[in-house]
Amino acid sequence: MARWVHVDDCAGGDGHESGCHRDRGSVTAEFAAVVPAVMIVLALCLGSVQIVGQQVRLVDTAADAARALARGDGPGRVAALVLRAVPGAMLDQVRDGEFVCARLSAPVAFAPLAAAGLTVSGSSCALAGGL
After folding, report:
1. 48 to each of 9, 81, 112, how far by Cα in Å?
2. 49 in helix, strand or coil?
3. CA 129, 131, 70 angle in degrees (round to 5)?
4. pLDDT confidence of residue 116
5. Residues in contact with 103: Cβ distance below 8 Å, sequence separation at least 6, in sequence order
6. Which listed residue, of 10, 85, 89, 94, carries a Cα 20 to 30 Å from 51's Cα?
């Protein structure tokens, strides 16, 4: 009857280990190096979603502001409407023929890019007279 004998693949012919355990812990080191990179990419992705949301709010608020200006609401009331919807936004109003346009800009809400001074803007126009 044959008898199975377990042979350690790492043992050399002289009974010393041949180096199989040299790589022990390398996966942990590689994982530790990759985790910060993955976290940075994830943070940038979440920040870009935040910036897109802010830009959508600016365009929507610019449309509301343009309609309010076209109806004849005062600049103070429209500025209050803008600041209530998007704190820190700047309103620029322009009359172009029979159109009233509102352009809003605000510092980026994502802190790393806000520190660089980047801004997000949105604009919209409405027919004067409030139609």
Report:
1. 51, 26, 11
2. helix
3. 40
4. 87
5. 62, 91, 92, 93, 94, 121, 122, 123
6. 94
Global pTM value:
0.71
Widest CA span of the chain, in angstroms? 103
Q: What is the DSSP letter of 11?
A: B
Alpha carbon distance 128, 94 (integer Å): 11
CA distance 31 to 107: 36
Q: Which two tokens stand for residue 114?
A: 């806000």
Write the pLDDT tens digit of every residue in 10-63: 555 555 555 556 666 677 778 888 999 999 999 999 999 999 999 999 999 999
**Residue bearing tokens 């409030």:** 130
